TrEMBL record:
This is histidine kinase. Its EC number is 2.7.13.3. The keyword Signal does not apply. The keyword Transferase applies. GO terms for biological process: phosphorelay signal transduction system. GO terms for molecular function: protein histidine kinase activity. The chain crosses the membrane at residues 23-42, 49-69, 102-121, 127-147. Residues 249-349 form the Histidine kinase/HSP90-like ATPase domain. It comes from Nonomuraea deserti. It catalyses: ATP + protein L-histidine = ADP + protein N-phospho-L-histidine. Keywords: Kinase, Membrane, Transferase, Transmembrane, Transmembrane helix, Two-component regulatory system.
Amino acid sequence: MIGLVAVVAAVLGAVPPVSVAWLAPALAIHLLWTVLFLRVAWRRNPLPSWLAAGDVAVTVMFCLAQRHLVAVDALAANASWISGLVTMSVVVAGVAWRPAIAVPAGLAVAAAYLVGARFAAPHQDVVSTLAIHLMQILAIALLMTLLRRSAASADAFLRGSARAEVTLMVERLRREDELRQVGSVHETSLHTLTMVGLGTYDRPSETLRRQAVTDLAALERLRDRPHAGTAAIALDALLDEVAGRATSLEVRRSLTPETVPGDVAERFARAVNEALANIARHAGVREAELVSSSRDGEIRVEVADAGAGFDVERVPPDRFGVRGSILGTMRSLPNAGADIRSGTGGTRVSLWWRP
């Protein structure tokens, strides 16, 4: 939109000494660049560095050619169409880069504007214009720094909340497993002892002997049950509950019944929870697929969508979701890992663990 406004302003302000021979090609280049910029920016998040660098280069080129493109009256009032492009280039640089790069890029654009303005109108006062540009550069750098810190804090809070939620689910399933085992003891060992105490068996019995062996085996399993951190959890039940909590998505599920240690189940759940949250926030779709399978001893879980993909390598370091809650979570387990494939056809997150 800003690009179209600049074109209209340039045409309306095309009075001498503006050169049509310079202005027409400049506006054609500007229109083509605007279309390319909008197309790439719409599809790519975050904004690619090469796109911001190209925007700075185009603006610098127009700034240096101001004496052929802008009327002197517009320069004197600091109201030329190129002045608007300078502001937008400063904003784009601040969004795409950290202050260490964005500030020098903004200063380069401001310097090019002042040089071009001096060539076009040698007696023009440039002090006020320089002050305005410096304020714009510092303001956008400060604003983006605050936004990035806020985003990092929000990521940390959501990460902690997700971990707490998954931990609660795991503990509930562990408790249910304990109750099932206690119930099993009640229905076997205690039942057998009660029958013996009531005198049901008044002489040696093969049936009693077999039942006693079975009951003893159940008690041995209960005694040897692993500690809470590695207690067996039904992975399919946990993942089904995680998917059910993604209320903004319709999650199609195909889950193979499988029991894994509690710490393994928890990491699978945390990674799946983050993958579904990313789909809801960024993919632009309302459907996802969750599949778990077991083959040759390896347990694999996949989360897929058909939405807008992203470049995994360009994810900023301060965005913890992909690198921390998915890749880092699974890779912290021995014999486990994760892989993310993303493109125009959607995103697929693959998680695996081998006992």
